[in-house]
Write a structure and sequence with these properties.
mainly alpha; 4 helices; 42% helix
């Protein structure tokens, strides 16, 4: 994925929404996990985020067990990493 200026796109709006859905995360949960204000998260979901915000979100999502898929013939996507290969998929809460 590349921006108009040729730099790599960190995350798309769609990937942010897909990542939140895959993990079952709400904006209040994301604010707690990232330290970002809910208005900053809303801007990210509206495509108005700073690059540093998108980089932080990507790191947090990846630490939670997601992989981001580039637009290679289709749209960009998100998938859960294989838990057997070090991935974690969850909502940040202990499951029992």
């Amino acid at each position: 994925m590349s921006d108009i200026d040729g730099r790599t796109t960190v995350l798309t709006v769609e990937q942010i929404r897909m990542a939140k859905a895959a993990l079952g995360w709400s904006n209040p949960m994301m604010a707690e996990m990232t330290g970002l204000h809910r208005n900053t998260l809303n801007r990210a979901e509206n495509g108005e985020a700073k690059r540093s915000t998108l980089e932080l979100l990507r790191r947090v999502f990846e630490q939670a067990g997601l992989e981001f898929i580039p637009a290679n013939g289709g749209g960009p996507g998100v998938r859960l990493r294989d838990p057997q290969n070090g991935g974690f998929a969850g909502n940040g809460r202990d499951s029992q």
